[in-house]
Amino acid sequence: MNAQGVTRPESLALGLRYVGFAVLATAANLLAQEATVRLAPGAPLVVSLVMGTGIGFVAKYLLDKRFVFFDASKTRTEEARKVVLYGLFSVATTLVFWVFEFAFLALWGTSAAKYTGALVGLAVGYAVKYGLDRRFVFTGRAS
């Protein structure tokens, strides 16, 4: 039981939560992009990408913080530090995902290979991200 009185689920349950939240955050990202395109059809593509990425990031951060890592930051400074680290690790692991996707496409030259690379890259990226978040972001100790 943690400081909030919540019993932590087993590792498999946490892993399933983490993956489920990744799916939810991805859906939130895509829905926000589509909403942006519909509400502002003349806006550049980058506007919908930024909106989707922002919504997806906030959703995943809040879900992970509360339901995977059971974090209770004590100060605004501590929370800001966590958000920045979480964001930096998100960018780094997105690069891992892209490398796999582009590498599979370059090696085999098919859409199936590209999407297979994307799935492999996402799996590797999320596994690495979980470890980084657990080790450096949601450490269970005040900064």
Describe what this molecule looks like in 3D.
The mean pLDDT is 89. The chain is globular. With 143 residues, it is mostly helical. The protein has two domains: 63 residues; 70 residues. Keywords: Membrane, Transmembrane, Transmembrane helix. It is found in: Membrane. InterPro entries: GtrA_DPMS_TM.
Summarize the structure.
With 143 residues, this protein is mainly α. Helix content is 79%, strand content 0%.
Helix and strand layout, with pairings?
Blueprint: H1 11-39, H2 45-68, H3 76-108, H4 111-137
Helix tally? 4
Q: Tell how many strands the DSSP assignment holds.
A: 0
- How many structural domains can be distinguished in the coordinates? 2
The share of residues in helices is over 70%
Distance between the ends: 22 Å
Question: What fraction of the residues are assigned to beta strands by DSSP?
Answer: under 5%
**Major β-sheet profile:** none
Structural class: mainly alpha
- Report the mean per-residue pLDDT as an integer: 89
Which parts are unreliable, with pLDDT below 50 for 5 consecutive residues or more?
Answer: none
Strand/helix succession: HHHH
Rounded to an integer in angstroms, the radius of gyration calculated over CA atoms is 17 Å
User: What would you call the shape?
Assistant: globular
